[in-house]
Amino acid sequence: MKGLREFGVGDAFELRRSADRYRPVYYAAVSGDFNPIHIDREVARLAGFPDAILHGMCTLGWLADACTAYFGDPGRMKRLRARFSRPVLVGDTVTFRGRCVAVEGGVVRVEVEAVNQRGEEVLRGASAEASFEE
Amino acid sequence: MAIDPRHVGRRYGPFRTTVCAERIRDFATAVAGGVPGHFGTSTGEPHPYFVDEEAAARSRYGSLVAPPTFGVTFAMHPFALACADPEIGLDLVHLLHAEQEFEYGSVVRPGDVLTTTGEVVEVRSKGPLDFMTVRSETRNQAGELVLSGRWSAVVRNPSPSPS
Questions:
Q1: Hey, is the C-beta of A3 within 8 angstroms of any chain B C-beta?
Q2: CATH: 1.25.60.10, 3.10.129.10, 3.40.47.10, 3.30.70.3550. Which one for B1-19+66-158?
Q3: Is B8 an 8 Å CB contact of chain A?
Q4: I need a surface site. Which of A91, A104, B42, B112 has the fewest CB within 10 A?
């Protein structure tokens, strides 16, 4: 596992994940969130979307995976946050581009941009912190 | 329609959940692009600490740990109940998850018995948008804080109310 000295401001990382047709169905099964807007296209249309939308929490799970891959150890995560600025639709691919913005007092902080295949931001203010103090 | 501020302070829970290794594995598999129940089908690689008992046994935790967003399975109940609470009366068709914050304490492991409570902590309006925020707190069987969550929903009112 990585130690504190292996992190530096300016480090960059990237992760790409896709919302295939079944992703919201699988995510509903593993999360227990069966809100029909995620699994029924007709309900999503009533809400004004062209197709089912992915759970924001799944997008947040992708963000956490991107950060965890950089931190190396998921148990070090101390904070995670994001605003869901645009829904992820079935068929969308999201690219997460993160960078380390601070290494202070044993804490590594990253900020992450998340955009869909059209270059539109799906998250705002996405950030995470991990603590490497014993 | 603005959310009545008298709902701030409304509490939900406690809710009890026992954490299960298989659910952690299925969760990590599905988030990484695979099919739940079919480990190894992910297009991405779930972190070994979520799915590989042997690798996890050699870690500083000595066992599998739950992914950072696994809290959706044990800490979302207060938020979900508040969103669907007939007393609060949110329009569920036009409701979306707006924002999420987690703060982590002790790691969550298979076998942990977690207790979650939650409370509506804020309601506000911004133009046609109504927001509600629920705070959750989850402790394990030793009483240690494992997760604090701030869960915010937005209701997009389709047309202005005539009143």
A1: no
A2: 3.10.129.10
A3: no
A4: A104
- Closest-CA distance, A8 to chain B, in angstroms, reads 22
ipTM of the complex: 0.96
Domain with CATH 3.10.129.10 in chain B: 1-19+66-158
The pLDDT of residue B163 is 47
Q: Is A33 one of the annotated active-site residues of the chain?
A: yes
Distance from CA of B4 to the nearest CA of A (A): 23
In this complex, is the C-beta atom of B20 within 8 Å of any C-beta atom belonging to chain A?
no
* Domains of chain A (ranges, CATH numbers): 4-131 (3.10.129.10)
Chain segment B94-121, per-residue pLDDT in tens: 999 999 999 999 999 999 999 999 999 9
The parts of chain A modelled with pLDDT lower than 50 are none
Residues B30, A53: Cα–Cα separation, whole Å: 16
Mark the ranges of chain B whose per-residue pLDDT is less than 50.
163
Give the C-alpha distances (Å, rounded to integers) separating A45 from A51, A106, B82, B97, B143.
Answer: 6, 47, 24, 17, 44
